[in-house]
Amino acid sequence: MTPNRRGPWRVLQILNGVPWQKDTGGGILYAFDLGRHLVARGHHVDFLVATERENERRLDWADVSYSFDTDKRRSPISLYRQARSRLREYDVIHTHSKDGALVAFRLRFARKRPALVATVHNPSPTKRSLFRQSVRRRWERLAARCSDVVCVPSEYSKIAVSEAFGLRVDPIRVIPPGVPDAFLAAEAPRREPLEGRPVRLVSIGRICGQKGFDVLLEALASVRRTRDARLEIIGDGPAAEVESVKQQMRRLGLEDAVRLAGYLPRDEILERLWQADLFVLPSRAESFGMVYAEAQAAGLPVIGTAVGGVPEVIADGVSGRIVSPGDVSAVAEAIEDLLSDPKRLAEMGEAAMQRARGRFSWERSVDRTEEAYEAASGRASR
User: What are the tens digits of pLDDT across the range 341-374?
Assistant: First the structure.
């Protein structure tokens, strides 16, 4: 990486999880990847994490402090109590979740304070009850409105955050996450010809209704009427959601055709992507869709849905296909169409790799983050 042009900054990132927990989300992976690359630029980065005690772990490149809630109902109040005595140690407070809301609110009215940056990863939460969505949205809105700079991963998120939180669109900064360096550093191996062997499909995501695994399984059952196709799903989720997927597999007769790999570390995920022929994830909602970028970086054509920021990640007809969410027939047809032309499949894989390397590098993401920190520092010092 190039040396930092600004700073060095002393940064505290506040978030609500760690990458090594089983049900980790894309925003958490982003925050830790960003921290690692900021450190490589010469900045100092610490983390303050609201999580459960079993997730505690130390890192050799950054300090991680934890806010534990014994009843597992995480509150911004307990994290604020953990943070308030340390805030003046930093130049930038960077929040990634509702848990930084009270920190941002308190500092907004301080005479001398660090810069405040909020990254909103998912402007449209779909989990839990309407009441709990409302509470979470209010905390996130408070964090965003008290910040000097608001960042989002996609142009879609820019509009959604503006509408949800009542912010002007223009100042919101779009900073797409970068693909892990290992995905970009190595050339994907030449894949075996499709003839005479089962087709290998792969999908990655937290096992929940949002990711559309129920649609994918129905589509796979349709594809298997004409060809031998196997699917590996990488990811974990609540026990009830995993059991629902297993029940659907049994109902469709897919027990021998689908492998639930569970949580895997990044290096193993890259290996699985290299071994696959096609990546498919028919999500019902995505603010960005990092796994589509990672699959493309590994040289895989991808099938995604026309939701959220996904059309910004996939070039329809060039690096993969975009279909309507919830449409089993469209997913099955897209799989069949791509697999029916091995030459075009290989060309799409090459185009996908080039697209990921040109658009989703951490070099670009950290450049834009440094610019956001500089802008926030200017506003904080007024």
Answer: 999 999 999 999 999 999 999 999 999 999 999 9
CA proximity to 194, closest of 315, 336, 334: 336
- Name residues whose C-beta falls within 8 Å of residue 250's C-beta, 6 or more positions apart in sequence: none
CB 301 within 8 A of CB 345: yes
Q: Angle at Cα 332 formed by Cα 330 and Cα 338, nearest 5°?
A: 100
The answer to whether 257 and 279 have CB atoms below 8 angstroms apart is: no
The strand pairing partners of 191, in sequence order, are none
Cis status, amide bond into 8, omega within 30 of 0:
yes
Cβ 229 vs Cβ 257: under 8 Å:
yes
Q: What is the pTM of this model?
A: 0.89
Tokens (6 digits) for 80: 């604020």
Question: Which tokens hold the place of 104?
Answer: 């941002």
Contact 49, 16 (CB under 8 A): yes
For residue 126, pLDDT over 50 is answered with no
What is the separation, in whole angstroms, between the first and last Cα of the chain? 32
Beta-strand (E) ranges in the chain? 10-15, 44-51, 63-68, 92-95, 115-119, 149-152, 173-174, 199-204, 229-234, 258-262, 278-280, 302-305, 320-323
CA distance 201 to 239: 24
Q: What is the DSSP string of 305-336?
A: ESSTTHHHHS-BTTTEEEE-TT-HHHHHHHHH
One-letter amino acid at 160 equals A
